[in-house]
């Protein structure tokens, strides 16, 4: 037989579990330089889980959310989870601070990758085929990863796309 105390504790536990289950990731909006901004009204939002592994043994887990236009090379918006935006390694001005890594003209690895996605995932009649947003997202993640490894942090970024949201 439940006592009033047991019922109260059960209720508190249920509320705590519900709150934990519905907890959402807090994202930080990343500043985009004008040359990377897209004002497209046709876009796809893709989110992936990421893990930053630092040489000193620290691990930061979080998410990257990119809003990718159907056409063009820019981004509509970019957000990184608060858990990976620490102000030192990755700040909200990451794209502005590293513009040259992302805006290097038509011959850059990022531009070639995005062009490849457009070619592979566009039908002969010009319509978008499923998978283009995920392909473009991977291009951006590769560019972000490359920039982190090359110049920003003494870290390796292991990106694992667990699910496309």
Keywords:
single chain; 165 residues; alpha+beta; 36% helix; globular; disordered N terminus; disordered C terminus
Q: What's this, in brief?
A:
With 165 residues, the chain is an alpha+beta fold.
Number of DSSP E strands:
5
Mean pLDDT across every amino acid position: 76
The residue ranges in which pLDDT falls below 50 over 5 or more consecutive positions are 1-22, 151-165
Name the helicity range.
25-40%
Beta-strand proportion: 15-25%
Report the radius of gyration as a whole number of Å: 20 Å
Q: Kindly report how far apart the N and C termini lie.
A: 45 Å
SSE string, helix = H, strand = E?
HEEEEHHHHE
Secondary-structure content class? alpha+beta
Instruction: Quickly count the helices.
Output: 5
Please outline the major beta sheet. 5 strands, antiparallel
Give the overall shape, derived from the CA principal axes: globular
Strand order of the largest sheet: 1-4-3-2-5
């Amino acid at each position: 037989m439940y006592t009033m105390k047991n019922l109260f504790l059960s209720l508190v536990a249920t509320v705590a579990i519900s709150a934990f289950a519905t907890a959402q990731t807090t994202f930080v909006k990343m500043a985009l330089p004008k040359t990377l901004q897209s004002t497209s009204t046709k876009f796809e939002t893709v989110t992936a889980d990421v893990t930053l592994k630092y040489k000193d043994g620290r691990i930061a887990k979080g998410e990257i959310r990119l809003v990718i236009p159907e056409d063009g090379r820019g981004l509509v918006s970019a957000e990184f989870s608060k858990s990976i935006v620490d102000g030192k390694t990755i700040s909200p001005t990451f794209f502005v601070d590293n513009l040259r890594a992302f805006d290097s003209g038509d011959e850059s690895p990022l531009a070639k990758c995005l062009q490849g996605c457009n070619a592979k995932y566009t039908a002969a009649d010009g319509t978008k085929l499923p998978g283009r947003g995920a392909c473009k997202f991977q291009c951006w993640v590769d560019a972000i990863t490359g920039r982190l490894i090359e110049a920003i942090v003494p870290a390796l970024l292991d990106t694992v796309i667990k699910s496309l949201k």
